[in-house]
Amino acid sequence: MNILDLLVGKPILTSDERAEQIGPARGIPIFGLDGLSSAAYGPEAALSLLIPLGLLGVQYIVPVSAAIITLLVIVYFSYRQTIAAYPSGGGSYTVARYNLGAFPSLLAAAALLTDYILTAAVGISAGVGALVSAAPSLLPHTVAICVGILFIITIINLRGVREAGVAFMLPTYLFVGTLLITIAGGLVRTLLSGGHPAPLAALPPPPAMTQAVSFWLLLKVFSSGCTALTGVEAVSNGVKAFREPGVKNAQRTLTIIIFLLALLLAGISYLVKVYGFAATDPGKPGYQSLLSMLIAAVFGKGIFYYLTMASILLVLSLSANTAFADFPRLCKAIASNNYLPHAFGYRGRRLVYTYGIVVLAVLTALLLVVFGGVTDNLIPLYAVGAFLAFTLSQFGMVVHWRKNRGPHWFKSALVNGLGGCVTGITVIVVLIAKFAEGAWITLLFIPMLIFFFRRVRRHYHAVLVATTSSEAVAPATHGQPPIVIVPVDRWSRICKQALEFASRISPEIIAIHVEPGEHSELLREDWERYVERPFEEAGSEPPQFVILPSPYRFIIIPLVQYILDLSEKHPDRRIVVVIPELVEDHWYEYFLHNQRGRLLEWTMLVRGNERIFTVSSPYYISEKAWSARPKAEESKKA
Amino acid sequence: MNILDLLVGKPILTSDERAEQIGPARGIPIFGLDGLSSAAYGPEAALSLLIPLGLLGVQYIVPVSAAIITLLVIVYFSYRQTIAAYPSGGGSYTVARYNLGAFPSLLAAAALLTDYILTAAVGISAGVGALVSAAPSLLPHTVAICVGILFIITIINLRGVREAGVAFMLPTYLFVGTLLITIAGGLVRTLLSGGHPAPLAALPPPPAMTQAVSFWLLLKVFSSGCTALTGVEAVSNGVKAFREPGVKNAQRTLTIIIFLLALLLAGISYLVKVYGFAATDPGKPGYQSLLSMLIAAVFGKGIFYYLTMASILLVLSLSANTAFADFPRLCKAIASNNYLPHAFGYRGRRLVYTYGIVVLAVLTALLLVVFGGVTDNLIPLYAVGAFLAFTLSQFGMVVHWRKNRGPHWFKSALVNGLGGCVTGITVIVVLIAKFAEGAWITLLFIPMLIFFFRRVRRHYHAVLVATTSSEAVAPATHGQPPIVIVPVDRWSRICKQALEFASRISPEIIAIHVEPGEHSELLREDWERYVERPFEEAGSEPPQFVILPSPYRFIIIPLVQYILDLSEKHPDRRIVVVIPELVEDHWYEYFLHNQRGRLLEWTMLVRGNERIFTVSSPYYISEKAWSARPKAEESKKA
């Protein structure tokens, strides 16, 4: 347990749990991190699709951004209402479950789980993208750095993030602050230079134009840019965490987050246009992230540049943390409806949902390794899940308003309906535009997840039905005693102890020796002397002694067959198999003895029936103590 | 079991075993393969050390070979005598054990085991070396091909090599035949050209001279060349396999093998000198094995070349098979003296020593991967073990002659003594010459193995002493019944079945419910209705119901602590822990339920004592059957 203590900390009492009570100042870092950090990869994801248009491509970034910001504002109004309607937390899964029914809620659940895995992967890989932009020599180690950061985040989360809010404040505000300063600086320079500022650091050469502009291309650019919206639903999940008045505080927090995000998106895309940045190909030498180019162009590669890049790395890595906060909680909610293994609902030693954290870490690591830790490869998978969850949540709200019919229900339903329609269309656009690049993976993964959910639920239901008992116990003080089987290898203390236990349970004992070849006369003699005689002297029937030949030298198979036959012959009796086990000091000593005991137990469990019970009869031996054994034997006799 | 059947074949009856009875014609392939195939890598290993001498180096191959052949002849006479003295098989381990005592025999055992692992690795890698010489495009896949061949050999050996002799005859005689033809052809061309034959295929350019000749270098060349002698002890291990007169047949076989090997070594080294072959660097582009150059130079790269190369590949791979034949048998012999885990002595379904084969395969694979499948990297490790075993065997024979004092004992002792001295000196020479290149690994590995042997034996001895019983069993028909513990989660059929079993064993039952948080009133109610009332109605004491609080949400720990405390409180009573287990149709369903039952059982085994027994009370549920359950329930009642 010591390594565990060191790594994830000492256990925490259940009663030590307490609710956090936060206001907007701490709410923005906690719930806004994921959303705000999207500004670091959304515009870049869009821009990199414009590479084939060469210098001309940069011109299209502004209208695309305008469309994305409009979408953001619509989503904002929708979620404001969700917050008001579900003050105890209205995640997409919950809203869909209450209002739309089982299947849509599973769809939302599958979409959200996919989304969280991608959030973790994209956050980390984008953060590392910022790092390798600042220090290009690290480029070949992208995947290793990604996995390292993932490991640290996992450990932190396994320890439990109690004061996470405070730790998150500095990097979040640093990130927003430095980016806003950069944007402001860029605007001032643009004004001073009459619209054509000269970059302070050399820009990568603009790409050659290899393709003409098309509606299809712009659609794809829009779809990629939409990833900038991911994470805005976080506040609606966490209304409960805000101090009174909860709804007001949550709404205020959401407003600030959306305003800041819109400002960042607008500022970045405007500066991209006036400076004429062209994206570089990630994962290749010479790659530089968009924000890296932007800051370097406005302020040069000085202290401020490195400070901003550091805050970007931190914020993006921490945005992966959002997934670690939400994924296990969502899994727990799904598991409590029996759609996921119940293990997701157990809280470990540190009061966190250990299983969820570990599963998320493993899946994220897999994703990072398979996609080489490059954000752009992950983006096509990303937006589908997020927007699908948005859509279901919004339509769930429409049903909610209609059911509850408050004073302005129609207006509210209209706002959420508009949000739902817009995000729904976006899902379709993203699906079509990104299908070939990888959205199909999401499209395969979500139904598979739903299938899995349903199978799990069906299984739990079957088990529940099959095991629920409204029958009283039948005390078995009457009736026949069980038949006890004791496998015997040679006459030893281990065997003696097992036989003594057997004789305590039942007068009907069968000792079985499996004979794979050489005939053992010795055992027969020992048996007579050490077992049959004492039993007769005690006036009881000695155990039956059966020798099973084993022409194929198997030990377990004839034994199991014998027991199964016996059980069939006596369908009204219980059979108890007493398995003598040698327990030693060190685990490695285990390999020096055959593991037939364990194997027999396991085989009986798999092939047996409800009337066959296996007993481990442990005999303890310690190498240090063996010389002292006789003494121990004495004291036992006394 | 079906995959196993397919892969390694159906089980074989112990009674179907039969001894092979062979003569020299089949004895040469079986026992000579390892020795003869050494001709394929021994001279090359020597020659490659002469690379730094440039063209001059080639001149030194003839005197070095002469020394090696002299050594071979001395070893030959020694082993002729060993065969006569140990007609039932005189491996180094056996001879050392009978004549020199425990420690030398362990030294021989460790040396031989090391040697066999290396034989397997060197055989395969040299075979693949021949392959990549013939098809250089395969060079990058060296390791993969090595591991693939190893896998095939392993499977063949797990199936059991019943008619191996016949299968070995063709490649062995093809190998010897083609090589002898090549040597003869080379000699004829040398004579016809007046001592300076022109090679038919282009030779690689001779290396530049980068070093002057030194005694030290020649010593290293000799050490490497000595690997050509490995494998000559095989006949002495297998005298029993020969048909009557066994000793004569075995000696005849040994004579032919040694004669052929000497001929091959002499022929190859003479042709190397007259053609002026220089070794190429293995593992690097442009590598060509010495025999490949030789055959190509004499006959060109025609059909004959590819036929010979194929026979070399086959013979070398099959020589790895020698290790697979001997390693498991040696392990068995060592295990029967308790120096290795007894598992090495069990014969599997195909009458072969499965454990030994698997362990050898794993170690060989490791060696091949670590050393990149290049023979030259393995050679420095090789000769030490083999020659150490030779030496111990020879000196063992000296003691043997002295003890038995037959008519010519002194002459016999002298021959073996000379053999022992010469091989002993060779061990030292090889150790010194090859120390830095890797012989130190052997020097570390052998003492580690001996240490391991002794620990294993000590452990078995301790267990034997501690468990051997000359005490009679004490039938426990009197005295107090055990205390039965039943962990209860919720009221279910699983729980009901466990309780009914418990009530059969003892009237004293304690049901324990661990409460990690929420209070379960339901369980209390169920307990009263379904357990307490029926027990009272049956007129017996109902089980005690204990609720253990668990502030840290652990389930197993409080339970185990309770049981241990109870056991301490009642030092004279047995405790039986009945663990309800749910057994399902499919293994993957296992993950849907917590494995607390198994964990509890395991923890009890590790932390418990001899008075605590655990019982698996299995409850079987099949998803298909659950709708049919009520019926099953009915029939059970009836």
Key traits:
638 residues; homodimer; disordered C terminus; Amino acid/polyamine transporter I; Rossmann fold; five-stranded parallel β-sheet
Please explain how this structure is put together:
By secondary structure, the first copy, chain A, is mainly alpha-helical. Chain A has 2 domains: 19-460, Amino acid/polyamine transporter I (Up-down Bundle), CATH 1.20.1740; 483-637, Rossmann fold. Helix content of chain A is 63%, strand content 6%. Chain A contains 21 helices and 5 strands. A 5-stranded parallel sheet of chain A has the order 3-2-1-4-5, sandwiched between helices. In chain A, strand 2 (509-515), helix 18 (521-537) and strand 3 form a beta-alpha-beta unit. The longest helix of chain A has 59 residues, at 409-467. Chain A is elongated.
Uncertain residue segments of chain A = 626-638
The CA-CA distance between the termini of chain A, in Å, is: 37 Å
Please report the number of helical segments of chain A.
Answer: 21
Biggest interface, and residues per chain?
A-B, 95 and 95 residues
Q: How does the overall form of chain A come out from the CA principal axes? A: elongated
DSSP summary, beta strand count of chain A: 5
Order of helices and strands of chain A: HHHHHHHHHHHHHHHHEHEHEHEHEH
CATH topology of the largest domain in chain A: Amino acid/polyamine transporter I
Strand order of the largest sheet of chain A: 3-2-1-4-5
Supply the CATH architecture of the largest domain in chain A. Up-down Bundle
Helix vs. strand class of chain A: mainly alpha
Tell me the Rg of chain A in angstroms.
Answer: 34 Å
**Helix percentage of chain A:** 55-70%
- By CATH reckoning, the class of the largest domain in chain A would read Mainly Alpha
**Largest sheet: number of strands, sense, barrel closure of chain A:** 5 strands, parallel
How would you classify the quaternary structure? homodimer
